[in-house]
Amino acid sequence: MSPPRTRTLRPVRAARDRNFLQYYDPCGTERLVPASQAAAVTFENALPARKIPSHAGQHHTPGHYWSATTDRMIDYESYLESKWMKLLDFDPEVVSFSAQPFTIDGHDTEGAWRHTPDLFARRRDGSVLLLDVKEDGRMTVPAVISQARRTAELCQWIGWDYAMVGEPDALRWANVSWLAGYRRPLLAGKTLVDRLLMLAQRAVPIGDLVSFQPVPELARSVIYHLMWHHQLAFDQTRPLRDHTHVQAADPRSPA
Question: What domain of life does the UniProt record list for this protein's source (predicted)?
Fold first, then answer.
């Protein structure tokens, strides 16, 4: 659960510092940093900047997601947000991510504004992707559009990428959500990994690869685990089926 968040620090604005980011470091200490210094902060390790509400009758469904990338539980505010956590977790270019990483205390020509973005992702090359997750029906609301524009402008100034996202592509989500069930560390099937990767040096249908094994259903779970971790490559633009071809990934690839 998210710990209580009491905001005690307030920005003192200089001419060069109009925007500040308030966050909590991994020890729970409140920090306040001007946007001009934000690029140097590891927000992927930050605790949630605000408490996620949880009460009877609320519209959103909060919960916790275990990330294979970070090996920790991350709180989410809605089921839609949890979908994007899974998508980030599956992305081989993402090396870490956090939720509600900071609160923007901004000031621009339109006046003061505050906003807590939903997800912060650090990529393998050090670049950053900041996401706001909105239901599709809310993405045309003027206040939401204005908030996204201000956030995008600030991110561009810092040097980060930004996107406001809604429901993910249905096929992409179906594949990722299925494989996510096999993301955890292997136990019983660890001894099958080397053999399966050897048999998949050339592209082979999942059904055929499974049939080579004395315990097909155990082998299948290992195959899905290897697909999640990008050790077995496959066509992600098509539905997963027994005839889906998989092939051992190039060990030199970053995944």
Answer: Bacteria
